[in-house]
Amino acid sequence: MNRPRTTPPSDPVRWVATTWDDPDALALRRRMDAELRPRYAPFDAQRAGRRPGPPTAAEIAVTWLAYEGASPLATASLRLLGDREAEHLYEVKRVYVHDEHRGRGLAVAALDAVERSARALGVTRLFLQTGKLQPEAMGLYERQGWHRIPCYPPYDADVLGVCYGKRL
Q1: What is the pLDDT of residue 83?
Q2: In the chain, how many H helices and how many E strands?
Q3: Cα–Cα distance for residue pair 128/79, rounded to 1 Å
Q4: For the domain that residue 102 is a member of, what is the CATH number?
Q5: Which residue, among 26, 14, 13, 21, has the nearest Cα to 62 in the 3D structure?
Q6: Which residues of the chain have pLDDT under 50?
Q7: Where is the N-acetyltransferase domain (predicted)?
Q8: What is the pLDDT of residue 164?
Q9: Gap between the Cα atoms of 163 and 154, Å rounded
Q10: What secondary structure letter does DSSP report for 91?
């Protein structure tokens, strides 16, 4: 990616397209992991070996970051999951809003940014996976027109996984 694309300067929240390994995106994902770890810790033994590893930077088409000034507020990424049935499959990864900035519509804006990026690539159907212990995420996705689908590889072995799909 040559130059980050941003929202117009009149918007107090600035969205920047960047890479998976951007330090601000990484910091937000670490914060997300720290927040979710206690929810899933009681199931670690049950889930051992059933969860896929994190995406690689090469798999991520774009990572979106929301900023207010220099502070990163939210993130979401678009991942090329693979090729199946003669089509590229893309999924939304790691939608997260910093806990101090929730309730401002940033999660919806992050999903919208990823969906716009997917459409620009010619994607007509998106997927995502979340966990059964994240009712806030499930509610968000359902309110935004996502529909539950059977879990797809590599998430089909995760007993706490919930998968969604959406036509663009």
Answers
A1: 67
A2: 4, 7
A3: 10
A4: 3.40.630.30
A5: 21
A6: 1-10
A7: 12-168
A8: 97
A9: 11
A10: E
